[in-house]
Design a protein that fits this description.
- It is built from 17 helices and six strands.
- The chain has a six-stranded parallel sheet, sandwiched between helices.
- Helix 10 links the parallel strand 3 and strand 4.
- The chain is elongated and about 90 Å long.
- The relative contact order is 0.09.
């Protein structure tokens, strides 16, 4: 049905595109010709507005569907209009200037359709990579190449539409079941070099998905970089605040990266074990981060202080009260974390689980994770760009998230940092599964 509508719509667009030639070739009164052109122009404008029809109750998905429809239409029209231009040159007998006007006006109309489609995708799509928009910017005037780039953009947009629509339908089906409605609220604890900004959520689309399925979500709100003991103290205050606010006896913690160490410290050393029902750590360097050891061995003290001073100044402006870049990163060495691990034993009555993923090649992530991946590879073990597998899988209750594709899963992928739909791994459903398990355990 979509293809049929696409073809019918393009016949109307092509008629408008060929108006200069048809004006000369068709013998009709001038008034009729003018009225027809105006009617076609109105139809074209309506086409730009309602192209493809309303595809989904979600306005964002509808814009994506309409944007890809316009691009597909532009690709089809560009090809057909070129055929028409060639046929007119061979058989019509029109003078060269009218032929040129017919060709250029048609290409302009088609290009505008593609432009409107691209704008819709830029506004709404999160899965079409910016590199493809850049490629189109530099190749839009190159025949065949421009068609290929447009088709790639449309393909990614349609893939996103289908994925998100299926996700939406799944959520609608299970909405009443509240599969993530745990007994205790969930505290999500971020890692180093980030804050709990809500306008750009550290956890990407995950919290909204959990809330949609019944979860009660709170955030750690600790500073972006500091000593584990300092961050743990801030976490302790936050735990007590959430307990007081909700009236719950305990809470569940899901922590990523250094946030797992902060959480363990608060539980084992600051008396928070009585308020914590479970701790799930995601890609946490329990035994240190080899990448940090490599950096510290190569970076001079002067450079470290230079970077630290500017980092601390920036994050003070962004909301930290007393960030400390240097202390935060120096604590993550293998020797320090291995020693700290012996001081933070698991507390009885708390459900512990450690999760880890690995990248499969240097192209699995961008900078600096791709650099970290190369540094960590020399140890002969899998890593996520920052943490090696053996450092994150602590205890007996472990989960290694193995990606079946060639891409693998990076440190950032495990918190949906880049909001990317990864083939073979749905990060939102992964966390739904984690929280569903907590619910089934009565936590």
């Amino acid at each position: 049905m979509r293809r049929l509508r696409l073809f019918i719509d393009q016949l109307l667009v092509l008629t408008l595109c060929s108006a200069p030639a048809l004006w000369k070739l068709i013998a009709l009164p001038t008034a009729v010709k003018v009225g027809t052109v105006i009617l076609l122009a109105v139809i074209y404008l309506l086409y730009l507005i309602i192209a493809g029809g309303r595809q989904d109750k979600n306005s964002k998905l509808s814009r994506i569907a309409k944007g890809s429809f316009l691009i597909d239409g532009a690709v089809l029209s560009l090809f057909l209009h070129t055929v028409i231009v060639v046929l007119l040159i061979i058989f019509s007998g029109l003078n060269p200037w009218r032929q040129l006007a017919n060709a250029l006006s048609g290409y302009a109309i088609i290009a505008f359709s593609a432009f409107v489609g691209i704008v819709r995708l830029v506004i709404s799509s999160r899965q079409v990579k910016i590199i493809k928009y850049i490629a189109l910017f530099f190749t839009w005037y190159i025949p065949v190449i421009n068609l290929i780039v447009l088709r790639l953009i449309s393909r990614d947009a349609k893939k996103e539409f289908r994925f998100e629509q299926a996700k939406q339908e799944l959520d609608d089906l299970r909405k009443e079941n509240e599969i993530c409605k745990t007994k205790y609220p969930i505290l999500m604890v971020h890692g180093i070099f980030f804050r709990d900004w809500q306008k750009f959520n550290y956890w990407g689309r995950v919290p909204r998905e959990l809330v949609r399925n019944g979860a009660e979500i709170y955030y750690g709100n600790q500073q972006s970089a500091n000593l584990i003991s300092v961050s743990a103290g801030e976490l302790r205050d936050r735990i007590l605040e959430v307990i007081k606010e909700t009236g719950a006896e305990k809470l569940n913690i899901i922590a990523h990266s250094k946030g797992g160490l902060d959480s363990r410290y608060a539980i084992s050393k600051l008396g928070m074990d009585k308020y914590v029902a479970s701790l799930v750590t995601i890609n946490t360097p329990h035994y240190g981060c080899n990448f940090v050891d490599d950096i510290l061995s190569k970076v001079s003290d002067g450079l470290m202080q230079f970077v630290a001073k500017r980092y601390n100044k920036l994050f003070t402006v962004l909301g930290d009260t007393a960030p400390d870049f240097e202390k935060g990163i120096r604590e993550l060495t293998h020797s320090n974390c291995a020693k700290l691990d012996t001081e933070l034993p698991d507390r009885p009555g708390i459900y512990y689980r450690s999760v880890m993923s690995v990248m499969k090649n240097v192209f699995s992530a961008g900078f600096p994770l791709n650099v970290g991946y190369m540094f960590n590879r020399k140890d002969g073990t899998g890593n996520d760009g920052l943490v090696v597998k053996e450092s994150a899988l602590r205890g007996t209750n472990t989960l290694f998230v193995e990606h079946k594709g060639s891409r693998g899963l990076s440190h950032g992928d495990m918190i949906d940092l880049f909001r990317e739909n990864i083939d073979g791994f749905d990060v939102r459903e992964f966390y739904v599964g984690i929280v569903k398990d907590l619910k089934e355990r009565g936590l």
